[in-house]
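User: For my dataset I need records formatted as: sequence, then structure tokens, nothing else. Please produce one.
Assistant:
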Amino acid sequence: MIDDKKVLFSGMQATGCLTLGNYLGALKNWLTLSEEYTVRQDPAEFRQKAKNLLALYIAAGLDPEKNCIYYQSHVSGHAELAWILNCFTYMGELNRMTQFKDKSAKHADNINAGLFTYPVLMAADILLYQTDVVPVGIDQLQHLELTRDIAQRFNAIYGDVFTIPEPFIGKTGAKIMSLQDPLKKMSKSDENPNASIYLTDDRDTIIRKFKRAVTDSEAKILHREEQPGVSNLIEIYSACTGKSFEEVEKEFDGKGYGDFKLAVGETVADMLTPLQTRHAEILKDKAYLDGIVKNNAEKAQYYANKTLRKVQKKVGFNEKVR
């Protein structure tokens, strides 16, 4: 984060294993420029997943010296700003959040206040750093729109306190669908292990999952609404190779689904191999990871405090005696 450059902010929740959809829809775009946070987690497993996620960021090519990669829980400003922004967010807005409805249906025994107000925490995450651009998947646009509404509402009362963030959606791979149900998003929490490609899946597993991917009976490799399964595979192949949908259709014209699925699987496996190799190397270097966590937490706290102090002063909080 450098004051004379635009600020890009994004984050992923350290629950489950990252999928190909997370990579193509978000993580890969960060180089160009959540989902289970409020569901109870096993503490030890949660900590390990957070470390794995940090290592995956770096393995994907994000330089921790140039990008402030940190654990949200190490910067208290997120929770402090979220509480203030709760007072500028309407119940009706939170009731309309699609993710709250989906999670409530899946976890009927744990519909808690944290789940309901989680979009406000997401808004605080973004606004705390005066973010200009937020890489998002199509399904996260609703949360970013709420963030913009909250910021504009606050600014209308107190002046230009928050930067109004703009979304960035990649041209391809913005929403990768399930391999078993192409009408729903690929998810790291899917109960069907064949529905998602995880970034740590080995080559044989990746290819096997693509071979089992749901298509249809038309035997035509075309990107169109009537063929959601095939269209999903075309989008994945396009995102991995940089080829347009038309180029993919031409490449596989006259070929069967078996050949196409194998090609997609091999392409994805080839793309992920160097990331997986680097990821394994990084995880072995505990001192390196610990240093990144410590240094970047301090850096993030510095920038977070600049915004938080401004907000606290605007709403009338007494300044701390130093």
